[in-house]
Amino acid sequence: MSETRQPLVVGNWKMHGSHAVNEQLLEALKSAGPLPAEAAVCVPFPYLAQVAERLARSPIGWGAQDVSVHAQGAYTGEVSAAMLADFGSRYVIVGHSERRQYHAESDTLVADKAKAALAKGITPIVCVGETLAQREAGETEAVVKRQLSAVIHALAHCVSEMVVAYEPVWAIGTGLTATPEQAQAVHALLRAQLAAASPRAAQMKLLYGGSVKPDNAKILFAQADIDGGLIGGASLKAEDFLAICRAAA
Ligand SMILES: O=C[C@H](O)COP(=O)(O)O
């Protein structure tokens, strides 16, 4: 982590939670007091109102896990960036591998979603990452570069306003974490690619995601180009999420 970039830790609740369960989690996060790192939670759409209300006077930000490319209209089931902005969302995750895999989201669609979010003042957290087969075939660099390139092209002069999350697909929810060296190597590649597109690349936040836990967060976040994490499972336990936030400071 660079001394010039402020760390960011984002919890991706995925499709978990209920009013009652969220209430306990949010209360525990709030009662922890000031956090040494910027933190946010990205929650299922139905709970945006709940987090907007419960986190209103807290430094913890919130956001969603997906956004439509469309502004409005006959798009059943879709949620626009303007709607997310209505709830005070600061972030939205786009291009998570689970959406790329289960909803066939293309690089172009992901890029358009990032653009739609930025147009409404919401920071897109753009996920990139290779599958195990791609890593074993030596394709990691080509895959993440291709995924990021589409977003760079779509965002043009706004490139520096996104957050990028490197999430090796084989590390998500598996307990297999990329080694700090593996993660740093990809982050360095991504930052170099961003530097070719934006003079502000050195200020951009690049997060690592994939089985980040309290016991491995510090060493991952200590890498030169890793500025925090996108946390799945561990973000559902207040104690673990808070420990990961503290490891980012
Ligand atoms: O968005 C978060 C990632 O998919 C990581 O999930 P995980 O921490 O459960 O491996």
From TrEMBL:
Listed pathway(s): Carbohydrate degradation; glycolysis; D-glyceraldehyde 3-phosphate from glycerone phosphate: step 1/1; Carbohydrate metabolism; erythritol degradation; Carbohydrate biosynthesis; gluconeogenesis
Superkingdom, natural source: Bacteria
Catalytic activity field: D-glyceraldehyde 3-phosphate = dihydroxyacetone phosphate
Presence of keyword Isomerase: yes
PROSITE patterns per UniProt: TIM_1 (PS00171), TIM_2 (PS51440)
Listed GO MF terms: triose-phosphate isomerase activity
Signal peptide: none
Enzyme class at the top of the EC tree: isomerase
One Gene Ontology cellular component annotation held by this UniProt entry: cytosol
Keyword line: Cytoplasm, Gluconeogenesis, Glycolysis, Isomerase
Assembly and oligomerization: Homodimer.
NCBIfam families xrefs: tim
Task performed by this protein: Involved in the gluconeogenesis. Catalyzes stereospecifically the conversion of dihydroxyacetone phosphate (DHAP) to D-glyceraldehyde-3-phosphate (G3P).
Similarity-based family: Belongs to the triosephosphate isomerase family.
Protein name: Triosephosphate isomerase
Gene that encodes it: tpiA
